[in-house]
Amino acid sequence: MFPPIPNPATKPVPPKFGEQDLIRRSASRVTPPAQRQTEIAKLIDVSKCIGCKACQSACIEWNDTRPEIGVNTGVYDNPHDLTPNMFTLMRFTEWVNPETENLEWLIRKDGCMHCADPGCLKACPAPGAIVQYSNGIVDFVHQNCIGCGYCVKGCPFNIPRISPVDHTAYKCTLCSDRIAVGQGPACAKACPTQAIVFGTKDEMKHWADLRIEDLKSRGFQNAGLYDPPGVGGTHVMYVLHHADQPEIYANLPKNPTISPIVELWKGVAKYAGLGVMGFAVAFGFLHHLVMGPNRVTEADEANAENLTGGNPS
Amino acid sequence: MTARDIEPGDMVHKGHPVTVDRYTAGARLNHWVTAASLILLALSGLALFHPSLFFLTGLFGGGQWTRTIHPWIGVVLFFSFTGLFLRFWKANLWAREDKAWLNRIRDVLTNHEERLPEVGKYNAGQKFIFWGMSFLVIVLIVTGFAIWDQYFNNLTSIPVKRVAVLTHSIAAVAIICIWIVHVYAAIWVRGTISAMTRGRVTGGWAWRHHRKWLRELVSGKRGG
Ligand code: HEM
Ligand code: SF4
Predict the structure, then answer these.
(1) Can B182 be counted among the known catalytic residues?
(2) pTM more than 0.90
(3) How is domain A19-257 classified at the CATH fold level?
(4) How high is the ipTM of this complex?
(5) Could you tell me the domains of chain B?
(6) Which of A301, A296, A276, A258 lies closest to A115, judged by CA?
(7) 8 Å CB contact of A153 and B158
């Protein structure tokens, strides 16, 4: 068993991280702090999950969201997708293992991965609406959010959702407000099987190794850790019994990266665009400076008067 | 025969100087509504285009308002531009002399008006602006709807939205550049702006820049 995080002190404690620990801030430049926090991570062991959704309930409870009562369409996913009020979602897949002909019930807890290279933050046009702390947490700052939905286009995992009520983007915060006071995420706290554990990223990788070793000894040769390098690694990681085919877990992307179109849009298109518009203005100024205005002459007016048949007045 | 570059209301008045009616009040109103929307769209769009321009959101009451209002102004622009298109498309069809004019673009830029062929109501440069803007407005409205997530989120998938937002920003840069050329030309070629403010130009202006059009008007080939 991974040692659970002890209960909090009853006295208020100062936050463990804040503004001074930002390593990225959307649409702004930040000077990276000299002292970095230890990277933290949440490890979701899919093989241990029993699909009880205690984590979803804990998430609703802690974040005080009010998801609508849904309808059952014959699958266990509830609600049917992430929403501005549901930051995490158990996605259920019935998969027949072609090697064993066994039906495997795969349950993956979907939610923000807290990418080291976050596409949402890269895409965001509003200064400070998305921030990344040196401990790895990617957080949305609602008072700076303008509701444009660019983060949705930037995210390789299709995570952020725009609220139709306040028109700002919502997603898992990794319980930044709990972690700031030395607590673990609400979902990890609620999980009855330790399918979700929380600690430093190194601890989590080490714990994952033990879990993978165990799974391999039980015949899951392809068990492994999901910490995709395409987004620089993530601060929410999975232990998968079939790590060679993450897609079977409700389309978990095999090699997620920020879309090249988003890179183009947020990279060369911006500089080239500003450059071309600046050039057009500069050309106008220079042309006028060198060539001067194109003026109608007396002769032109006289020609027009002749053409119209002389001057009646 | 009626010349296709003569628009309703185009008319020559004898006098000293000769004056030529170029745009009706309706056409001018239509033009200025379009111009205002284009400028507001450029300002609100550029605010989101680059962080260094985000301060422009202040003109619209903050980021949330900028995001909300931009697509609606786009809808105004679309209808308003459609009005201009219907008014002006005929006079912007390609004519024989346009090629010769384009071949002499050097003389255009160096103010050697006398070396250019006589052209109708619009020269090839103006036609380029007209068709370029027409094309880009269509691109902008289509891609704009694809990323208007507040109402049309389910219309397109995320991969489509990525392409749409990239295309929208490139088309926006292109139309802003065309707009810069358009405004500069109106300033550089003196006597042009009154065409859109009071609807009239002088005969000399028409003689110098659109002599074919002036001749058509004088000889009474009045368009329908
Ligand atoms: C014709 C109808 C148009 C529609 C429906 C439309 C819609 C949109 C939408 C939905 C956005 C995303 C931000 C937001 O939600 O406000 C956007 C962004 C933008 N629009 Fe438009 N737009 C239109 C026309 C234009 C025009 C004419 C221009 C330029 C003069 C323009 C320039 C921009 C720019 C520069 C952006 C930011 C792109 C980026 O962030 O890279 N738009 N537009
Ligand atoms: S998973 Fe999506 S929303 Fe979460 S940090 Fe990565 S890009 Fe941002």
Answers:
(1) yes
(2) yes
(3) Alpha-Beta Plaits (3.30.70)
(4) 0.94
(5) 14-217 (1.20.950.20)
(6) A258
(7) yes
